[in-house]
Amino acid sequence: MLKFKFIPVLLIIAFSAAVCCPWATLADDSLLDQAEALRNADPSQAKRILESIDIASLNSAQANRYEYLDIYLMAFSGDFKTMLKRYQALVPGIESDILRFKVYSGMMLSYQAASNWVDGLSLASIIIEEFERSDSKATLAPYLFALAGFYAAVDEHQLSNDYLDLALQYPQTDGFKCSASLQKAHNQLKTVAIEQLSKNDFERVIELCKSSKTALYVTLAEMTYAKYLLAISETNLALQILNENEAELMNTGYIQGKLSFLQIKGDIYETVGELSSLQKIVERILTFEGREQYRTALESAYRWQSQLAAERGDFQLAYEAFLNYEELRQEQLDTAVLKQKAVQQSRFESMEKQARIELLDKENQLLKTEAELSAERIENSILAFVLLSGLFTGLMIWSYRSRRLRKRFERLANIDGLTQIYNRTAFIERAQHLLEKSHKRFIPVVLIFFDLDKFKHINDSFGHQAGDWALKKAVNTVQTVLDDNVLFARMGGEEFALLKVGLTQQEGAMFAEKMRAALENLNTLESGHSFSLTASFGVSDTTLAGYKLDTLIASADLALYQAKKRGRNQVFQYNKGALN
After folding, report:
1. What is the pTM of this model?
2. Which residues form the signal peptide (predicted)?
3. Burial letters for 213-247: b for 16+ Cβ neighbours within 10 Å, e otherwise?
4. CA separation, residue 496 to residues 98, 163, 465, 539 (Å)
């Protein structure tokens, strides 16, 4: 699956160069203005300008601005942890609303880069509250862009669009309009069925970015367009666009952008079957200085390396690359779960805060009423008793609702929202427990991986609604074959896993064959389209792979790979000899 997560981070870094605010006209202010204007287009020159400034000569406001710019330029080296510490130390001494919002933008970027979703969402709440209270909304509106980028990163794309629309209600520069349109295009690729988009949507963004006269914006817009072209199978044009922009991008300091660019080219080469070109992409990514900054590209590179090595018959390298890929994929899936939990926690805290405010209002009203009734006689005490009973009842109801909400969020954190079965994180936790328990008693455990065949074709040809239908229908069909003692989970995308205690690999293969046949006989017309829905199965057990979950997963996944390689729609059992 093509991934393109770097755009929100790069846009948060990039767009600010187009947003400049008036400062004092002293010599030091002039140098700070120059550094700020160049911080994105030429960060090295911006750094030299800062170094030429005598820090001792700066007043408090200038010193804060200098510190902000010095921290900002650290983004190009990827040291977001240090950036965040310095930003947090800077905030208390800032008096200017504009500079504080700039620092907030930098902090949002740092939280995003560090995958610190909980603190990022807490800061988002602060930004929203301060913006709503401000009398200078038009001046602060551009800095909502960082908020929009962060919400896109946690897959809250509608919220991202809402804050972009809010910012665009105020006059903005061409650079901001370009950045906002590009972020919206990125959100569309994540949420809108590909057939509802058109080339014109992306060509308009490119033209808008050209008017901003910032080369980086244009390059990011072209890369987004190439991603769209790949999704609609226009690979030649996508590759042409990438080749035209490669030199421009590779001359920048954006490591994530360069790696993502290589990843998109790799996706194209994989799609068209240019294995020699794909091998070169793998080598470039795995030797790229700073590659750890963009682990999504590393994940793709190891997956390609595993497949290419298997094609050459180098099964040892294929296995090692697969383990690296599996580790990174697990990391990405864990991150997705953490995002979901952070969003749910943020929503719960917001609801809890609102409930507390409502209860305080009722409490204050009660106290006011008690004061007014203090001079009344005993008959009015009955009214006070009723009000106190009502407050107590309200507290009980709120407590009950809070407990229900917590249970609901705990369920959401463990259950896949689309298919209503366990997600990967819940599967890993429960599978490890079952394996440990079975190991003590030497009971065999079988693991079955299955993957819907040519699922991307279903999505691209019939839309995401048909794809969602296929996933849910596949799960429902498989469940008719299962008993109550099977651990069943969606591992990500169109890949699923089943773990069963007490079965051998041979018995598991017979079990998998029943599921395969049930899927093959499905009638897909109720989806509104006619297409073939089949699956490939890989089966392994603890007799061959042992009771370590990582090894068991790797062996089942290799068996699944062999099933797909041999023509799909079949069951393949893991065999250690395949690695020799």
Report:
1. 0.60
2. 1-27
3. ebbbbbbbbbbbbbbbbbbeeebeebbebbeebee
4. 49, 36, 19, 12
